[in-house]
Amino acid sequence: MNNVLVTSKANLFRLLQCEICLESVQDARLCPQCSRFFCDKCIHGWITTRSSSCPSCRAVLRYDTLVKGCSINEMQESITLLVSSLEKHYPEAATANNYCERHEKLQVNLFCYSCEMNVCAKCWFSEDHADHKERVVPLDEAYEHYRQNMRMALAWVDGRMQLIDQGLSKVTKNQLQLSRERENIEKLRKKSVALVAGEASPATLINIVNIDRRITELRSTQYQPETETIRIEHRRNFMLESTVLIFRRTDFHKTIQGKDSYESNAKGPHGFVWKCTITTVDPEGEGDDGDAEDDDILSCLTLIEGKPSEYSVTFENEPERVQRFELNKPVRIGQFDPARHVDNDTQQVTVRIRQTYADRIQQLQAHIARLEQECADQKSYNKPLLSDCEKSMEPSAS
Fold it and tell me: Read out DSSP for 187-237?
């Protein structure tokens, strides 16, 4: 019964959600072509700043042609009251999502990355997850993982929206400038056609000279539209999972005092070796934004061993950045705040690193080849020793 109520509630609210913001529709407005409804604020912003077509059916749409959905607003209020009443009579339904669908008496406290679903402890031991038990983690860990992914996705969405807005502003500018130029050209064309077809006279000649001069001026001052209205980013197929490095340093103030910088111990898995540096000297000179000051403490990352390439780096809770790393060349990744990163004089920095799938495959292949070579070298080194041991163990001839 609880699962039925939860599912019905979710389906009802999904039917009454805005097609733009995907939230419960507010002050509904309907498209007269496809009858899809939107929030009044959402569709007004869509038409005035983004597009003159319907977000759902792509038909030409004007704000004054939208139909006000009074019945939808009333229906939403009635459904909200109905759901609230049911939840009062069945209070356990409000928390039904916290219980396993297969084992209704057990709460879900685990998450399976492979199946992308919440599971309980009994599910974990079932055959459904037998071949990927290592992919089942506590809910808190999975939540933090996906929340971090969502932060990076939102950073991309915000950047993309900004690029789109810039492109739309350029399109609007192009449209205005070209419309004005076309009006002027049309006027000159009508006058030119009339003068060419008219009778020859001194006045006509002067008018032709004047029109010719204006056309020449127009040709030299014609508007050049901005063709690159929006920058298309090169698609970097970065892996979803990131390598998390945690660098710790005790006696922070004692170490940093009187020195320009100090370096952490190098660490990293699968052929990676990274080193984090806390420094007051920017290895790249002045920062890109030009706001670096002499008293700033910077965090830099150095690729000691691995594949030189572009990596997606997240320093603490700062936005994700794609940066180029070469071997043994420190790269500035963020500004270090001792008040936030130092606790009981122990400094800790968390860095998340992602690479493309192609780079990861090449990285692992090189790492495996290096390990195989080390094993071969070790066998070559041990072979004479084993031979001597075998000879010494042979029985001596009497």
Answer: HHHHHHHHHHHS---HHHHHHHHHHHHHHHHHHHS-----S--SPPPPP--
H/E segment holding residue 92: none
Pairing label, strands 297-305, 331-336: antiparallel
Q: Which of 290, 261, 287 is nearest to 276 (CA)?
A: 261
- For residues 124-134, one letter each, b for 16 or more C-beta atoms within 10 angstroms of the residue's C-beta and e for the rest, the string is eeeeebeeeee
Instruction: Identify whether the C-beta of residue 34 lies closer than 8 Å to the C-beta of residue 57.
Output: yes
CA distances from 246 to 139, 152, 364 (A): 21, 19, 22
The vertex-240 CA angle with 237 and 241, nearest 5°, equals: 130
Q: From 31, 32, 45, 39, select the one nearest 76 (Cα to Cα).
A: 39
Residue 268: CB partners within 8 Å, gap ≥ 6?
243, 245, 274, 304, 305, 306
Alpha-carbon span 194 to 206, nearest angstrom: 14
Contact, 252 vs 346, CB < 8 A? Answer: yes
List pLDDT tens digits, range 278-299: 776 666 555 444 444 445 677 8
Find the range with the poorest average confidence among 44-53, 76-85, 278-287, 376-385. Answer: 278-287
Taking each helix axis from N to C end, the angle separating 2-15 and 70-89, rounded to the nearest 10 degrees, works out to 170
Distance from the first to the final alpha carbon of the chain: 92
Query: For residues 92 and 82, is the Cβ–Cβ distance under 8 A?
Result: no
Q: What is the pTM of this model?
A: 0.38
DSSP secondary structure letter of residue 60: B
* Cβ atoms 23, 17 nearer than 8 A: yes
